[in-house]
Write a structure and sequence with these properties.
The complex is a heterodimer of chains A (249) and B (218). Chain A is of the alpha/beta class. Chain A is built from nine helices and ten strands. In chain A, the strands form two sheets. A six-stranded mixed sheet of chain A has the order 6-7-8-3-9-10, sandwiched between helices. In chain A, α3 crosses α4 and α3 packs parallel to α5. Chain A is globular, with a radius of gyration of 18 Å. In chain B, 77% of the residues lie in helices and 0% in strands. Chain B contains nine helices and no strands. The chains are: A alpha/beta (249), B mainly alpha (218). The interface between A and B is medium-sized, with 28 and 22 residues.
Amino acid sequence: MARRSDKIIMRVSGISKSFGNNKVLHDIDLTVYEGEVVVVIGPSGSGKSTLLRCMNFLETNESGQIYFGEELVVHKENAINNMRQNVGMVFQHFYLFPHMTVLQNIIEGPTQVKKIKKQQAIAFAEELLDKVELLDKKDIYPAMLSGGQKQRVAIARALAMRPKLMLFDEPTSALDPELVGDVLTVMNQLAKEGMTMLVVTHEMSFAKEVADRIIFMDEGKIVEEGKPDSFFINPENSRVKEFLSRIIK
Amino acid sequence: MKYDFSIIFTKFPIFIPAAIETLKIAAAAILVGVIFGLIIAFGRLSKVKIIYYISTLYVTIIRGTPIILQLFIVYFGLANIVRLDPYTSAILAFGAHNAAYIAEIFRGSILSIDKGQMEAARSIGMTNFLAMRRIILPQAFKRAVPTLGNQFIIAIKDSSLASTIAVRELLLKSQQLGSSNFRFMEYLLIAGIYYLIITGVLSFFVNKLEKRLAVNER
């Protein structure tokens, strides 16, 4: 049994999305259980990122429902903001706030959104920075960091909100190859600690080692879904076979 | 009559009250311009159609007509409704004028911020307002500084138009003194030197601010 709990963290049901005449998501259903690491893979343009962004309402789905836990998230500012406080998002291009130091980036959410006392927020931020091994950079501005360091700060910033689910949108795709490892190590560690994660990535080694479940998307549909072992060794769908043969040499 | 440039030195100090007047109108116009400019910029960025159209119409009218016409409309044109003194008229007209230009400066700098910044802010649960205030505007303002400085310099020079409605600022002072003894050139040069000093000092501080703000950029 791959999933570690029967408790549902997030569920999307019948999600569709178009950009103009281009339909990028076709009636997607997906459930993420507590403590589970779900990795979404697939060719570019398959709708992986759009699905992730719909789940956080950064894109607006045209049809279908999004449930956080048991609760339907309605298209209202309040409901969406409440949900977002519980769902961390990590972007391909980090999007750290350039006018704030590393520490300020991390305490921004807790102090401004959750109204947590600054001292308390700083203590937790330092704990998180220690975890991503960047405590010595806390008073530095993002411009002075490498891509890998930026992404680790971005992960810490998301974790500072104490999310129940972390969404990763191609977190290593913008990094120099030698910096990918540091970020994956942090994500690996997070998974071990039991964080529920939904990861869009092209890192097959990460998918193999860390994922509880792999989802393959193509042309806006979930084409295949399974545990890493069966998925990589014995894929059923021909599109998956083709994709894997191109990616894994 | 020969030019007597020694007048420039001997009469220089008597322009000080006029220079202060120039500074007062320009500063007030800039202040009004920044406040209303920011509001109009949000109007121009608004998704609410009517707000967008009104603010766009405003910017189009102001940018499409001469500033001196706007000044005359406020001072002479509105006289049937309200009689504003020259000083107030100048501040209102120049403030309204600068607001349109400053609105476009703010709008441009807000749009220049990567939309990922807004997404990142929203993804930690910030409201649109909070994200604007804490994340977008500080960055946008930083980017606006050089262009804003330029607009402030234009505002200082444009304040000379207030001489046409008898505000006792630098240009009017030099005209009045010039017509008293026909030494126009000497007095105009004095006014010119004052303008150069004011705009020079302003540029200096804008440059300094720009450098200070650029510290954290790559």
